[in-house]
Amino acid sequence: MIIGHRDTQFNSLKRLKKGDLIEVKTRHKRKQFKVTTLRIALNLQLNYIQSKNYNDTFDVEQSSLTLVTCYPFDSVLPNPIHRFMVRATAT
Q1: What span, in angstroms and rounded, lies between the C-alpha atoms of 89 and 34?
Q2: Element (H, E) at 46
Q3: Which UniProt keywords apply (predicted)?
Q4: Structure pTM?
Q5: Closest by alpha carbon to 16, among 89, 90, 87?
Q6: Number of domains in the chain
Q7: What is the CATH number of the domain that holds 69?
Q8: How far is CA 86 from CA 9, 18, 77, in A?
């Protein structure tokens, strides 16, 4: 799981569609993931998912990718209760 800010690094997530490709680059590797699910979840749901799957490092060899940011994208209020989640599988 990679978490980023909705108004900076992850602002482009709002343009993703199911089937789009995401390329992840590390210092030594590149890997593509295909978007399978776009979902809006409550912050509490994310906390549960994160507690069951949390890993503080990203391994490019993983077969799936989860990207998360705050939602809605254009909100001016801090700390919204919703999260936008993107799930993708390795191609």
Answers
A1: 5
A2: helix 43-53
A3: Hydrolase
A4: 0.81
A5: 87
A6: 1
A7: 2.40.260.10
A8: 14, 9, 22
Amino acid at 4: G
Asked if residues 40 and 71 have their Cβ atoms less than 8 Å apart, the reply is yes
Query: Mean pLDDT, to the nearest integer, of 16-42?
Result: 93
Q: Rounded distance, CA 86 to CA 1, Å?
A: 10
- Residue with tokens 């077969």, as numbered in its chain: 63
pLDDT in tens, 52-87: 555 555 566 678 899 999 999 988 888 899 999 999
Q: Domain residues for 34? A: 2-90
For residues 84 and 13, the answer to whether their CB atoms sit within 8 Å is yes
User: What gap in Å lies between CA 1 and CA 85, rounded to an integer?
Assistant: 10
Q: Find tokens 């108004």 and name the residue.
A: 7
Q: How many CB atoms lie within 10 A of CB 86?
A: 22
